[in-house]
């Protein structure tokens, strides 16, 4: 049979509707989706095979291979495509049809309605007048005075418009004098395009091009704006350059009324074996800093090769130490201490891996003295070998490192005499070990014996010998038992476990004051650190130990789902002798036990996720050294409330509370906010609040913010606005990414 017209759903895949948000929403948000109001398809009371044609009307004059006329509720159907009209005139000889009066068309992705239509089936060309269209995927709709289709190839429309709003409440609308869609090249072009909001023209362009899908295309992105007390009014006009399918770039002039014009560039590439990103910011003359040139570069590259090989590079640098304080947009950027420059080469074999690294740091924190700044690693070689782990068998391995540390010359002047106080040199560290794990379903015991050999080769200095070394044995015994029982709580069956654990560690004392400290610190005490072999984070110090760790963990597991809904762990170290190995300037530790540490977390209460940690030290007059608590309340989609508190007393005094939320009120409104408060200082570190309005085709956000920007206690304030036309673009500062960072669990459904 002759083919019915096969109007492609790509006819109107407007590039402006690239955000197909409807397909990504959960059922909770369907109330925020504008209704499409597509009429139901007519029912076909016949069984059709592929390419069969179906015709139906009140009156039918059917002539085979001739001119057929269907009048009164006329219908045609083929495959998943259907059309109705008051009158259909089908010419079988040249495979064309006239559809007259109340023309409607349906397929899987598109609905069309027009006054009349003429279709040429042999070449797939159609002409429609006074057409209305609805796109199901992008939920867009519009009208066109005339529409010319070259099905699957090209669509041209005159005097057309587009929106994702409900026709009865049309907040915004795009209007164009002409629109041309090239489906083969996936591009669209519009002339004399006007954006109207509440029927008020707010944007005009004589020409605009865009992709017909989510594919990228070069062009200007929507501008962003905001205002802060440091930089004044800010305005950005980004230009996106789609270099190739695997490469792109964004060039953005950033206009700052108090500082000048900053150029921002971003370049990205992505392919099957690697990816990379380069960000550059440059301000030729900062009016607020006596015309100084300011710049920032950040580079990250990763490349895989030969199966398990990888090359990774990162390079970050700023022109001066005030850069993040002046231009950073959040507290974490303003408090950055170091910027890393690193190149890694790694490769993994069957039972081994190797890493070669060169590394440097730029110190940004002005309060850090030269003698406390990190060393360069030029280079560092790390090698690890381990036999595949087996139970009731001998396991062995080797951890090795060779690294050259360099911090240049550190000149010290004493009594008018200059001396070089820097310590640079090579460190070789080897840790062979053997273990014999014995594990069953109910218990385990894991004895382990290792040795640590460390050799230095130091350059001329006044503090240490040129070739100091250290050799130490390390013995540990880890053991545990698993108990379990069935229990019932809140009308639910659970399995409760009880897991006592005993860990013994012995390392003899070796005076190590004759060794330099290149990259070693002391681990933050936590439940996990109870089972570390070394209490120091680097190999310049190997802590002496004769100690026992006692720990207990209990879990609550839902027997139906297998989900761990609650867990509590507690433990403590008991020292059988004083710890004499310390970092420079630290005293010998003679306590008989460590702090008592406990951690807990649960999701047993509906909609709540609660966790906390406490470190209580009986040897300290203040007893509680660390305390953290966090509660997340998420009763439904779009609702999130976070509470957290932390207190640290063992290194200075830190006590902070943090509250953040996103909470709907009314049908379309939500409030967002965060309050990060330093309790001892009695000041807010981060404070912002705002509102969101979500309509089915547009949204609006306004956020006012005050935040700490420098170590000197300087604050910045700002007001940021964003309007989003759903299915088109955003106007204003990109607040969604900021809110996701600041409010854990925040989601933007569109």
Helicity level, as a percent range?
Answer: under 10%
Percentage of residues in DSSP E strands: over 45%
Overall radius of gyration: 35 Å
Low-confidence stretches: 1-30
CATH architecture assignment of one domain: Sandwich
What composes the largest sheet?
26 strands, antiparallel, barrel
Query: What is the CATH superfamily label of one domain?
Result: Lipopolysaccharide (LPS) transport protein A like domain
How is the CATH topology of one domain named? lipopolysaccharide transport protein A fold
Q: By helix and strand content, what is the structural category?
A: mainly beta
Number of helical segments with 4 or more residues: 3
So what's the overall shape?
elongated
Number of strands: 45
- Please report the distance between the alpha carbons of the first and last residues: 45 Å
Quickly name the level 1 CATH class of one domain: Mainly Beta
* Nearest-integer average pLDDT: 85
Written account of the structure:
By secondary structure, the protein is mostly beta strands. It is built from 3 helices and 45 strands. Among the domains are: 150 residues, lipopolysaccharide transport protein A fold; 120 residues, no CATH class. It has a 26-stranded antiparallel β-barrel. Strands 1, 2, 3, 4, 5, 6, 7, 8, 9, 10, 11 and 12 form a 12-stranded antiparallel β-sheet that branches. Strands 26-27 form a two-stranded antiparallel sheet. The longest helix is centred in the last third of the chain and has 8 residues.
């Amino acid at each position: 049979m002759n083919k019915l017209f096969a109007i492609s759903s790509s006819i109107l895949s407007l590039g402006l509707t690239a955000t197909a948000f409807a397909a990504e929403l959960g059922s909770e948000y369907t109330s925020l989706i504008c209704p499409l109001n597509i009429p139901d398809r007519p029912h076909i009371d016949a069984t059709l095979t592929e390419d069969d044609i179906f015709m139906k009307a009140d009156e039918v004059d059917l002539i085979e291979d001739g001119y057929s006329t269907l009048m009164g509720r006329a219908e045609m159907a083929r495959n998943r495509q259907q059309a109705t009209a008051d009158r259909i005139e089908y010419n079988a000889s040249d495979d064309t049809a006239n559809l007259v009066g109340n023309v409607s068309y349906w397929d899987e992705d598109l609905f069309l309605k027009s006054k009349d239509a003429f279709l040429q089936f042999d070449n797939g060309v159609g002409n429609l007048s006074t057409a209305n269209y609805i796109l199901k995927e992008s939920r867009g709709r519009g009208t066109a005075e005339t529409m010319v289709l070259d099905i699957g190839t090209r669509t041209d429309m005159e005097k057309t418009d587009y929106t994702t709003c409900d026709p009865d409440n049309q907040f915004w609308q795009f209007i164009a004098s002409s629109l041309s869609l090239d489906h083969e090249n996936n591009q669209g072009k519009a002339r004399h395009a006007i954006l109207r909001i509440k029927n008020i023209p707010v944007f005009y362009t004589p020409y605009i091009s865009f992709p017909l899908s989510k594919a990228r295309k070069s062009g200007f992105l929507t501008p962003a704006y905001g205002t802060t007390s440091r930089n004044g009014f800010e305005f950005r006009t980004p230009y996106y350059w789609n270099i190739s399918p695997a490469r792109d770039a964004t060039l953005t002039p950033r206009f700052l009324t108090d500082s000048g014009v900053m150029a921002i560039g971003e370049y990205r590439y992505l392919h099957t074996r690697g990816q990379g990103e380069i960000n550059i910011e440059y301000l030729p003359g900062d009016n607020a800093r006596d015309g100084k040139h300011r710049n920032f570069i950040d580079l990250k590259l990763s490349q895989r090769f030969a199966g398990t090989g990888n090359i990774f590079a990162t390079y970050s640098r700023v022109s001066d130490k005030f850069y993040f304080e002046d231009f950073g947009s959040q507290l974490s950027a303003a408090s950055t201490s170091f910027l890393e420059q690193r190149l890694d080469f790694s490769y993994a074999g069957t039972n081994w891996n190797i890493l070669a690294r060169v590394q440097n740091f730029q110190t940004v924190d002005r309060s850090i003295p030269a003698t406390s700044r990190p060393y360069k690693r030029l280079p560092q070689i790390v090698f690890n070998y381990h036999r595949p782990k087996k139970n009731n068998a001998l396991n062995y391995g080797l951890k090795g490192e060779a690294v050259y540390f360099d911090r240049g010359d550190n000149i010290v002047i004493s009594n008018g005499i200059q001396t070089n106080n820097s310590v640079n040199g090579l460190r070789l560290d080897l840790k062979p070990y053997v273990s014999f794990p014995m594990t069953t379903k109910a218990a385990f015991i894991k004895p382990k014996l290792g040795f640590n050999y460390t050799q230095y080769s130091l350059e001329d200095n006044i503090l240490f010998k040129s070739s100091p070394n250290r050799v130490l044995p390390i013995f540990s015994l880890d053991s545990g038992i698993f108990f379990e029982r069935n229990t019932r709580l809140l009308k639910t069956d659970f399995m409760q476990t009880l897991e006592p654990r005993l860990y013994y560690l012995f390392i003899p004392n070796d005076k190590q004051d004759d060794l330099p400290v290149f990259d070693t610190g002391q681990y933050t005490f936590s439940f996990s650190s109870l089972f570390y072999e070394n209490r120091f984070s680097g190999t310049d110090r190997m802590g002496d130990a004769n100690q026992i760790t006692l720990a207990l963990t209990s879990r609550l597991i839902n027997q139906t789902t297998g989900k761990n809904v609650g867990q509590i762990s507690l433990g403590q170290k008991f020292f059988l002798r004083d710890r004499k190995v310390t970092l420079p300037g630290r005293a010998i530790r003679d306590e008989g036990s460590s702090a008592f540490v406990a951690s807990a977390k649960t999701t047993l209460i509906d909609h709540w996720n609660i966790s906390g940690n406490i470190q209580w030290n009986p040897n300290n007059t203040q007893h509680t050294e660390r305390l953290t608590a966090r509660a997340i309340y998420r009763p439904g989609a779009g609702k999130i409330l976070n509470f957290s508190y932390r207190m640290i007393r063992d290194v200075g005094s830190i006590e902070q509370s943090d509250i953040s939320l996103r909470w709907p009120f009314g049908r379309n409104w939500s409030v967002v906010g965060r309050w990060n408060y330093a309790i001892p200082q009695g000041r807010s570190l981060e404070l912002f609040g705002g509102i969101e309005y979500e309509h089915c085709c547009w949204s609006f956000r306004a956020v006012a913010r005050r935040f700490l920007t420098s170590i000197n206690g300087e604050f910045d304030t700002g007001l940021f606005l964003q309007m989003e036309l759903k299915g088109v673009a955003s106007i204003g500062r990109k607040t969604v990414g900021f809110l996701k960072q600041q409010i854990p669990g925040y989601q933007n459904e569109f």
